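2.7 Reproducibility. Because tokenized structures are sensitive to small changes in the input, we list the exact sequence used for Beta-galactosidase trimerisation domain-containing protein, including any N-terminal residues retained from the expression construct. No trimming or masking was applied before prediction.
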Amino acid sequence: MMKHPITLYILVLAILAPCVATAQTANNFKVTDRFFGVHFDFHANPDTRGIGKTLKAEDVDFMLDKVHPDYIQVDTKGHPGISSYPTKVGVAAPDILLDPLKLFREETAKRGIGLFSHFSGILDAQAVKDHPDWARINGGGDKDKGATSIFGNYAADYFIPQINELSSKYHINGVWVDGECWALQPDYSDAAIAAYTRATGKTDIPHRRKDDGYLDYVQFTRRAFHQYLTHYINAVHKFNPNLIVTSNWSFSSFMPGKVDAPVDYLSGDFTSDAVADVDFESRVLAPQGKPWDLMCWGFMSDKNGKGFYWKSARHLDQKAALVLSQGGGYQIYTPQHRDASLPMETVPMLTEVSKFCHDRKIYTYNSTPVPQVALLLSAFGHYNESPGVFENAQGGNNNVKGTLELLLDSKYSVQVLQEHHLKNNLAQYPLLVITEWRQLQPEFIAEIEQYVRDGGKVLAIGDNHLFGKYLQGALPVKSNAGLSISKQNYGKGAIACITDTFAMSGISLRYLNTRDENLRAAVNQVVQELFPQPKVEVNSDSKVHITLNKKDNNLMLHLVNVGDHFDTNADNTLKFNLPAITTPISVTLATGKRPKAVILQPDGKKLPFTYAAGKIKFAVPGLDVYSIVQVIN
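Resulting structure tokens (single pass, no recycling of outputs):
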């Protein structure tokens, strides 16, 4: 019997409502909505059974409603190449009892929360097992058991179609592609060698690092990955222009250089809990001209490396502070259980960190740095020194990291900038710091020379081989930290060079590994001579890292407590300790005019200040983890 038309209409709406909500969520979510998120994955393998067995809608709802993430990322395909959802394109796990992705999409769509796929790219063990001709070939001629070739048919025949399947079937908002640049190695497949010969005309192929031309082959591999990345992102964007895509660690410290592929945002997951690593990675991504975030692993191993335990909210708050202070977004990695269910014990921790971040978003997200100290991360120098394809612990990156910490510990506001950031922009920075690069491009050296001639100041740390001709006649001065310091005026500016007189010891790495206070003080004395009037001066004996940004025409001074350390608990786990700073922090800030108010955020507490000669002076009454001083004009 035919139902009443109104009844039928209501029934049809009820059936279609989840689909409509899902489509609207997919269309309305923007890349700039990615501020705070939670990343879940579990890398299903061929033996994974019972997927969805204990995954419950009420658990997902509880997590979403308590934590209030702007988005979540969930497992779809990990490095083993086994999909954790029913797929007609890829290879699904053998025992899927409930479709996790369908459930996550339904529950996130109800709340307007973004849903992103964690999807392994070049690393796909199942794909190369089923299609040996898709495998990368190593220098010894063997097929890689885990990695595909970027020169073969994997992307066109498998990778791109599966992303399009995810996009059309589940209306996901985006894809966080993992296992790419950081996993890339030189490929000696027939297709790769043919591409190299076409590009260079060379037929003598270097297979080992000691072979002539090996670095040229590595550089060819790098260029090929840029092309590969551009190709597949253009393909999935053509299928769905609204899909938000990134490749993990692209255009980061692993892969420095100008963003020349159509990634929608930049992202990376850091496993280190060292402040130095988070300081560095966030400052490398921040100036790249794309929305960006960093992912902190929410767990750590015990001292024996036999198990893991969850980090405290305070621990994760500090890492969030280091990221947010640079204008980025933040996400936390909490692995799913093997059946795709969620670790519900993490909800209180995630809720606290989410509130910490969202309370500060209005003062941090997409803010603009005030030029002060520019620290050079040379893409040219890195690739010239690094034997790997894309590796961030090679070349001069660790030297930059050590110098960055030295400058931050001296309470300077520092940006880590590459050649393409500084080209035609050097004049806006009062001080340029260059640290222990073996080689820079001659045209960039010439630009630096003009910068100094016009009044700029350069501090070269490590040796003077790059700037020695500008220091002729300068008499070196020995410091009590074992440093030899030369300084010479040049044009309207000046160049100083600091050389480490200790054998086999670099200044930057020495500081990174020891936090030698005498070393820091000796270098800081030279910095003060070159840069005597920073826009902000912070006076405190406590360990505070500062950043000076602008947002909505207001100055924002970010203060992060980095005085952390670890203790050992009775169960052999490490306890994160971050004592609050209880003594006042004195600040002098050049504003040019008297501001309307100085407010400590996110507390909303007005700070009394004095104003004279274009500068304000005030005191911050202590610091817990992270506060922002908002100067309202």
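The CA atoms of residues 89 and 534 lie 58 Å apart.
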